[in-house]
Amino acid sequence: MASLSAQTLLSMALIGFTCLIIGVNGGVEGGQREFDYFALSLQWPGTICHRTRHCCSSNACCRGSNSPTEFTIHGLWPDYNDGTWPSCCARSQFDVKEISTLLDALEKYWPSLYCGKSSTCFSGKGLFWAHEVDIKKHGTCSFPVFRDEYSYFITTLNVYFKYNVTKILNEAGYVPSNSERYPLGGIVSAIENSFQATPEVICSKHDVEEIHLCFYKDFKPRNCLASKTSCPKYVSLPAYVSSGSDESETDDNNIPWLSDDEDSAVSASIM
Fold first, then answer.
1. Which end of the chain, C or N, has fewer beta carbons within 10 A?
2. Contact present, 130 and 58 (Cβ < 8 Å)
3. Exposure of 223 by Cβ count < 10 A (0-12 exposed, 13-18 middle, 19+ buried)?
4. Is 138 a known active-site residue?
């Protein structure tokens, strides 16, 4: 059932996907130039899941004991050195069967932490997850590094495993806590010492929300470009205990569980 759930999630999220790569019949929309570097965006579920107001089948925050407890992938984004980025670069068909062997890993390490659908490239509609990770917007611009969907996803997973930020921080003493605050400089230094490059840390108030690791096109680490941070001097890595993975459990915690139809209705109201 887990595999089916993953396939359903990705099929819905990627439906109408406008390709990750420029195909034989594809073309660059708007003449966008080739990107300069990659940013691997990692999100801290403890921060994001604390904001959960609705549960649905696609929201990993609602999986009970299987909810994520480590940094998960938000996206692998091609960026420009001037601080901007390309998006929606090509039109093509996406075949979820191309990544069928990766579905379980994607559901675990690259999940949606939200409910709802949102606009995607070329007036398509998909789960909010697809919009957040920008598969449909930024992944299309990864040419010439990636030439197919499988390469894009498997490479992102491999880079994520190689530079395990959760493990790096835990070994340095920075562990999830709802009471402790840690020096931002210490978190950055711990990652720099292991990664050999400077990350970007993004916060929601004093809570770490995302960490970006930046790479040259050959995936050698490079410094991220951020000249200032949204974080205070001391930050937290909030722990999160899931409200559960079924309707009765979420009701006990005052987080309503949405059916698929209700999920769509919420999506329509926020678009």
1. N
2. no
3. middle
4. yes
Using CA atoms, how far apart are residues 142 and 52, in angstroms rounded to an integer?
32
Q: Tell me: the pLDDT tens digits for 14-70?
A: 433 333 433 333 334 456 789 999 999 999 999 999 888 888 888 899 988 889 999
Of the residues 54, 74, 131, 212, which is catalytic?
A: 74
> What are the C-alpha distances in Å from 210 to residues 43, 138, 254?
4, 18, 27
The maximal CA–CA distance of the chain, rounded, in angstroms, is: 55
Place of tokens 């790569």: 21
75: Cβ–Cβ under 8 A, 6 or more apart, which residues?
Answer: 40, 41, 132, 133, 134, 135, 138, 139
Q: How far apart are CA 191 and CA 213, in angstroms?
A: 9
What pTM did the predictor assign? 0.78
Q: Residues 138, 149, 210, 212: which is the catalytic one?
A: 138
Which 3 state secondary structure label does DSSP give 266?
helix
For residue 200, give both structure tokens. Answer: 């970007």
Tokens of 170: 């835990």
Please tell me which residue in 54, 107, 131, 132 is annotated as part of the active site.
132
